[in-house]
Design brief:
Arc Repressor Mutant, subunit A; single chain; Rna Polymerase Sigma Factor, Chain: A; 2 domains; transcription regulation; DNA binding; DNA-binding; RNA_pol_sigma-70-like; mainly alpha
């Protein structure tokens, strides 16, 4: 921005921003929105250098018109039509109701059902039974290397099955 344009924009801000802000607060009752509208109005003035060259009276009228149009556009927008603000936040449960644990168990159970019998057996013995590789090997009568391999590939398949259900890694 040339120095002259910057000076004119600063002058425009100094002379009219407060009046435009009060006007928007009067229209909306929302001080935060008024800040945003004034900023957007001045941004539009900066993008349209012809406004900077106008007389003070016509520049002021242009600023008020633009601010009013921004407020109208915001009120007509979808977010304004379908959302409403509130001063109170929704209540959060004071204690864990266990719903998350139930849903997690359901997801894991569904994912386990997709695995082969061999992979599922090794995972269930290791994670739900708390057994070591050697114990799983003895109980399922398979070599320890096979237990490790099935555990590795079973967990990979499990991860994919969970990702298909929308579960992501943290």
């Amino acid at each position: 921005m040339p120095d002259e344009d910057a000076r004119l924009l600063r002058e425009l801000h100094d002379q009219h921003a407060q009046a435009v802000w009060r006007y928007v607060v009067h229209l909306t009752g929302d001080r935060a929105m008024a800040d945003d509208v004034v900023q957007e109005t001045l941004l539009r003035a900066w993008r349209k250098p012809a406004v900077l060259d106008q007389s003070q009276q016509s520049a002021r009228a242009w600023l008020f018109t633009v601010a009013r149009n921004i407020v109208i556009d915001d009120k007509r927008s979808a977010h304004s039509q379908h959302e409403f603000g509130t001063d109170t936040l929704p209540e959060r449960p004071s204690q864990d109701d266990g719903a998350d644990a139930v849903l997690d168990a359901w997801l894991v159970s569904d994912a386990l059902a997709e695995l082969s019998d061999e992979h599922r057996a090794v995972i269930v013995h290791a994670y739900y039974g708390g057994r070591s590789i050697a114990e799983i090997s003895r109980e399922l009568d398979i070599p320890e290397g096979t237990v490790k391999s099935r555990l590795h590939y079973g967990l990979r398949a499990m991860r994919l099955a969970l990702q298909e259900r929308g579960v992501t890694e943290r």
